[in-house]
Amino acid sequence: MERFAIVDIETTGSHARGHGITEIAIVITDGCDVLDRWETLVDPGLPIPTHITKLTGIDDTMVESAPTFEAVADELEDWLADAVFVAHNVGFDYAFIRGHFETMGRVWKRPKLCTVRMARKLLLGHASYSLGNLCSDLGISNDARHRAMGDCAATVELFHRMLKTERATEVVSSMLKRGERESWLPQHVPASDFERLPTKPGVYRFLDRKGTAIYIGMSHNVRHRVRTHFNGDMASSRRQAFLRDIYSIEAEETGSALLARLREDELIRKHWPIHNRAQKSVAMRTAIIPYTDQKGFNRFHLKRQRHIKQAMRWFYRDEDARTWLHGQARKHELDPELLGLGSDGRATERDDSSETVRSHNQGIEALTKAARHSQRVAIIEKGRNHHESAVILVDRGVVQGWCYTEESIERFEQLDEIVPIKAGSATSDAIVQRALHEFSTGKTKLYVWEECATKKPPEGGLFV
């Protein structure tokens, strides 16, 4: 069955060189039915021009906490795996994505189809073949024009309609016709190594002649990701040396992409392969930092930083941190200024008596205790088979440990016995923090079990 990836992107400008991507949407279809879909905002790494914001509605604030292209590159590659890349004016979308991969030092290629060219061959007689005009002529609705998923969904409908026309098979075949690929596996790697690779989430290792790991990676689809390492030309001397050093490939399934990211980080820190570059940068967060002033008041201040050390709590956006603190000030009857929110404009002088300090600090202690208690959670993910589950124990955004288990889990307290403590890292913390943030905003599905919640495990005690 042929798979097609219908793609639409929003950008900061009209050409790939010097401009960034702000949004990506993908719909996977077999030509008749939609099979899956994915979308994400992207931090372009540069300001979004005013005229682009007016056109798309996407501004700098919207992408402030969005992942960079580098952060979603592997996931994007997996979504486009084993599918024909389809877009309206495909050269635009394809050039941007290929160019972004090239800036990462990666070669990326896919067979592609242009729905503009298809329409000119299959839908004759239109005055204009822009997406907007074609949709208007054909009665295809698009309630979100110039947003990635809105235009993408409209292109899917247009594509499906064209495939039902009489000459569609002939036209698509001629557009996809291309020559045979050259042999692509490194000379020392046996084909059986590649054939054994899983097509599920996991980590993989490239080993040298001595069996030493020289590169470690992860993917939603390990076999496809490994294949992409060997695409493209061999012009770079560094690339030639890299391929020449690979003698075998190993991989292990992890059950989920989240566990693959954690396992990848663990293995890289254990082996420090020579061809792995520095770990991905950690996003900026707004940390709520506690301190005691000279008069004895326990206070907070807000600080934008990449780590969350000494933080009582943290948020991706400053406004979310402030909203939360305002709510806590009302709940615990605390002075907003002492919570890092600034003066409320009143000219009254604060009572600094010992009784006032004691009362205030009791409120801060109650706030802190409740906040910290509510932040200890367990993330339950799929295991490597249907008998087991993966458990990640997180305390205030910091990974305490993770493991696979076949045990029946009935109470949260059991996890302290089941989950071994691991020496984590800023990268592993950021991986889990991003997953929890996307869960809280509805961008991803997770089973998150809060220690303080009354929520019970699924019947039977196993999370599968």
Strand content: 15-25%
Shape designation: globular
Q: What is the C-alpha radius of gyration, as a whole number of Å?
A: 26 Å
Q: Give the spatial strand order of the biggest sheet.
A: 3-2-1-4-5
Q: Can you tell me the CATH class of the largest domain? A: Alpha Beta
Secondary-structure map:
Layout: E1 4-11, E2 21-29, E3 34-41, H1 50-56, H2 60-63, H3 69-79, E4 84-87, H4 90-103, E5 112-114, H5 115-122, H6 131-138, H7 148-163, H8 168-176, H9 191-195, E6 202-207, E7 213-219, H10 222-229, H11 237-245, E8 248-253, H12 257-271, E9 285-292, E10 298-305, E11 313-315, H13 318-332, H14 354-373, E12 376-382, E13 389-395, E14 398-405, H15 415-418, H16 426-440, E15 447-450
Parallel strand pairs: 1-4, 4-5
Antiparallel strand pairs: 1-2, 2-3, 6-7, 6-8, 9-10, 9-11, 12-13, 12-15, 13-14
Helix pairs in contact: 5-7, 6-7, 12-16
Explain the overall architecture:
- Mean pLDDT is 85; it is low at 178-183 and 459-464.
- The chain is an alpha+beta fold and 464 residues long.
- The chain has helices at 50-56, 60-63, 69-79, 90-103, 115-122, 131-138, 148-163, 168-176, 191-195, 222-229, 237-245, 257-271, 318-332, 354-373, 415-418, 426-440; strands spanning 4-11, 21-29, 34-41, 84-87, 112-114, 202-207, 213-219, 248-253, 285-292, 298-305, 313-315, 376-382, 389-395, 398-405, 447-450.
- It starts with a strand and ends in a 14-residue tail after the last strand.
- The longest helix has 20 residues, at 354-373.
- A hairpin with a 2-residue loop joins strand 13 and strand 14.
- The chain has 4 domains: 4-176, Nucleotidyltransferase, domain 5; 191-271, GIY-YIG endonuclease; 285-373, no CATH class; 376-450, no CATH class.
- A 5-stranded mixed beta sheet has the order 3-2-1-4-5.
- The radius of gyration is 26 Å and the shape is globular.
